[in-house]
Amino acid sequence: MRRAGGRRHTLRDIAAALNLSVNTVSRALSGKDGIGEKTRALVRAEAERVGYVPNSMARSLVTGSAMTFGLVITNPSNPFYAQLISSIELRAREHDYSLLLTVTDESAENEARAAESLLRSSVSGAIVVPVQAGADPWQRLGAVGVPTVLLNRDLPDLGYRFVGTDNELGGYRATAHAIACGARSIVVLEEDLPITTIADRIAGYRRAMTEAGLSMPRGSVMRVPTRRHDQAALPWQPQQAYQVARRMLRRARLPDAVVAGNDYFALGLYRALAEHGLKVPDDLMVIGFGDHPFSAFLSPSLTTVRLPAEEVGEIAADLLLEEIAGGRSARPLKQLIAPTLVERDSTARKR
Amino acid sequence: MRRAGGRRHTLRDIAAALNLSVNTVSRALSGKDGIGEKTRALVRAEAERVGYVPNSMARSLVTGSAMTFGLVITNPSNPFYAQLISSIELRAREHDYSLLLTVTDESAENEARAAESLLRSSVSGAIVVPVQAGADPWQRLGAVGVPTVLLNRDLPDLGYRFVGTDNELGGYRATAHAIACGARSIVVLEEDLPITTIADRIAGYRRAMTEAGLSMPRGSVMRVPTRRHDQAALPWQPQQAYQVARRMLRRARLPDAVVAGNDYFALGLYRALAEHGLKVPDDLMVIGFGDHPFSAFLSPSLTTVRLPAEEVGEIAADLLLEEIAGGRSARPLKQLIAPTLVERDSTARKR
DNA sequence: CCGTTCAACATGAACGTTAATGTCCGGCCA
DNA sequence: TGGCCGGACATTAACGTTCATGTTGAACGG
Closest approach of chain A CAs to the CA of B126, in angstroms? Predict the structure, then answer.
């Protein structure tokens, strides 16, 4: 069944066993024509018998394509990215691509090494969530002709295709909904990272406030410090948001609503509010971001912005497939998918 | 800087530019001796100038090792597996291995294709969470000499190394803690999958009950139906647990405590209890499993079993590295890491 | 019956790298 | 001074495929 020493069977083994040329065996197995039906059957039978598995490195070396997607993600423990991984992996697999995963953990150094690694392994294409600490590492990918799609965070300097969530719209919808529910003063709780995702959400918040003619006094946007690198790839920590929320609650005048940058922050906020004896939504409304699996089951259930993770992942994979195929698609170069507001009890104030 | 047509520079390009042989360039860049210092400097400078990136497929083809870990996971949206991905990817990267990720989504067919795919790409080794629908797909890996480590779920028929959580102990500790807190009748809420993880937890539950001399009437173990394959790789759904919990609450006699198979189930249970006007922990205690990031911030905060995800991932990677290196390690073949109970308010009954 | 055609296969080269030998030449020692 | 050694490089082969191009032999038409 297998050769001595655990070595794998090759085309040559099969060819020798059947007194055929290597090429004939190759063509027979890959289904190309110019091979007699009886020969093909013979080859297939022998390949089956010895458990032949093609060596994709050898194949890739000659074809030039490794049939591999490189996926570069900041943090798999972020549920949004976890879903992206799933949907991209599925799409890749459906098209016979493998997935080479690299985690950057928001580190520029890791990002540079990731780009280098993708180049070495000659991936067919790359889907990248950039750290946004500079475009250099990813510029090289495009320079040597590796199709690259940016995911969730854009680097406009490079002309790459991009698909992500419309965070500006998400921030706008969250804030507009709070306003519609009667909030006049609103505080935003956002992570302290210099990425467009967050800046866009805040922009949406400002737009909603401005449209409603509401003011945004100093301290309306509160930053939750990021504690990455303490351990490997932590998920967001509600604890940090909890402490920031406690600072907020010491203020003289409380806001009517808090818009959180993600559902974990809302969770920390819930605790701080409970400790202060404040009721959600009557004393203060809370809106999350991300619609994490737990959010519907909090008490009160959390109004939040649902992200189109699956759709974004699928589009990213499709964009990459198109670019690999070489056909210029009809799709726009940059694509923003609208998130949807999920209204739940944390904003259901009795009027 | 780069060649026309986006093609990559090769050793041959550098050799031609410097009037050297390809081999000399190779040895100069890979740091082997037998190369003059001035030549080496020249080669390095030229490689740097043209932005040379080695082709790892060609290298792998001749060395026989692809410097790649194959990681096969059932569902990245499971926070436990997400953390495993992170820690394994980190460990792999530290040792210059890349990570080839495949998602099986609890499907035996996907699993078989995953094994095939790992064989094709000649991974240096594989870390696998088996679906446990049969050992056949993974048997082949070992047969052709691919070092394989089983993760979290064992397949005892194969003689592979295994590292996972001691779920029996976890189930025992959760149950014993409930008993210590005064519970006499306890119901277990478990997912409806035929995997050892779950069976072990239930065994631990039974052991704790037996040791305490408590009975386990019919209906003590309730199964939450799995709804995978509705969408791609869903995280666990509290909704299913919620419905099962409602069935439980219709019973004549309520248990003193419920031990949930994961924290999401506890979440669904919380809602069902709240709707019935039951207070945790005074009317009923709840213990979760997994210590998901949200669990500490529920109200009441959830007593749960913390899984050693990071440690398990690191050990899995280390086991694989050892096996790849060929050295028989001093470690036991099968390794179970003890989870720890995290006591919180959901079992803090006022005595 | 001969030239043409085409199916069915074989042969040789190539992909980019590493590993095993070869070759040259300068310097060392007896 | 002759033989030998070893450093510094070159040459050749190999990894397992695929692709482009040969080569055979039989069938076929005029």
Answer: 14
